[in-house]
Amino acid sequence: MSTPHLASGPQGPTALRPLLDTVLDALHTGGRTRGAPLPHGGPGAVAARIRDAVGDVLPDRGDPDALRILVHAFAAGAADPAHPHCAAHLHCPPLAVAAAADLAATALNPSLDSWDQAPAASALEDLVTRALARETGHADALVTTGGTESNQLALLLAREAHGGALRLVHGANAHHSLPRAAWLLGLPEPVVVPAPAGTLDPGALGDVLARLPGPLLVAATAGTTDTGRIDPLPEIAARCAVHGARLHVDAAYGGPLLFSDRHRPLLTGLDAAHTVTLDLHKLGWQPVPAGLLTVRDPGDLTALRHRADYLNADDDTAAGLPDLLGRSLRTTRRADVLKLAVTLKSLGRAGLGGLVDRVCDLAQEFAGLVHDDPRLDLHARPVISTVLFRPAGAGEAAVAALRRRLLTTGRAVLGRARADGRLWLKVTLLNPATRREDLAGLLTLVHQAHAEGPR
Ligand SMILES: *Cc1c(COP(=O)(O)O)cnc(C)c1O
């Protein structure tokens, strides 16, 4: 048997080059086969096409054409976030430069659990995490797999800072990963504060904080997943200060508004938080995963200190080898920091801020089109880049079915959200290449799909 080609080493780039040509060609042909934001036919048809393309998953003898066949099928059956009509979720089209950088991290495969596996990667992570932490007014940051892990770590650090006891207080608008993290960490049932206008009500929060015994962690949201609303951070921070509660802000969605001079003021008060969740695989145009948790007091990170002789022996650490194990709950950890570093440096603050402004402007334009269309109801003017709308007078089942018709025919990918007791169609605009015509075209598709079903 011949020795397989490896991605790193002196021959790595030479081995990769023709394979990358195959991948890029298959991405192209697969995307052309799909010809739409989503594959046609719904889950059954997509699964059947994947079964046909794969054949035997683990054949006795390998197939030299596997890369081309599977990447083609993968692309043909993908939901493409770069299609302007793929706008359901906080699912961004990644920047080409970030995907290219990520290839280098994949090829060299550094692992950030010890310095001897990741010398440059650990030095780069140190620089980038501190720079991003400064954006939120904080001292340090941990790299995570996303908002869910960041929120979990925020609860863990808060629990440990308070000697193991803690109760979480969050708005009814908070992300589901927060109560789930409380459950995982064995904390008491969280207290849910009403959010009647879609944002946490500071008056109601003050009442809760006045009556509950501490220690308490308040979790506020800067950019809710369903509507993109931002909790009143200064008022919430003031209530926390009065009652001695710790504050976490889940800015998984809204955090990157910090890169925009125009939109940064929406996050005033963020720096009062003890910890902040940021996701750069949402408004940051990164390939998944690209999460961060910024931390005001680096002392909080001592809770994660952990010793494993083969990774961070005391004498190695004393001799100056960086101790990386305490920067995550994971052990083996890929160098997600490279794509972040490349993105920040290639686009700069102006480039990233410009992308943020662009998608926020698109959301305002889309809301304007909905507002001016008498056949549609607009939920509210967008705060970030999310717009909720529905066909006027449509029943709940009709709204849900319309969305599924668009999905199963592959025409458009819209989300759904419940707000003010009603079911809405949700558009999350994260594609800066979307044009005004695309937005109008999306509404045409909605009208068509609505006309196709029972009202
Ligand atoms: C997306 C999101 C999360 C979860 O982040 P993942 O990266 O999906 O784990 C948490 N909070 C908010 C507000 C989000 O929008």
TrEMBL record:
Organism of provenance: Streptomyces calvus
Keywords linked to the UniProt accession: Aminotransferase, Decarboxylase, Lyase, Pyridoxal phosphate, Transferase
Family: Belongs to the group II decarboxylase family.
Protein name: Aspartate aminotransferase family protein
Keyword Lyase in record: yes
Single Gene Ontology BP annotation: carboxylic acid metabolic process
A GO term from the CC aspect: cytoplasm
Keyword Transferase included in the entry's annotation: yes
InterPro entries documented for this protein: PyrdxlP-dep_de-COase, PyrdxlP-dep_Trfase, PyrdxlP-dep_Trfase_major, PyrdxlP-dep_Trfase_small
GO molecular function, one term: pyridoxal phosphate binding
Cofactor: pyridoxal 5'-phosphate
Residues found modified as N6-(pyridoxal phosphate)lysine: 282
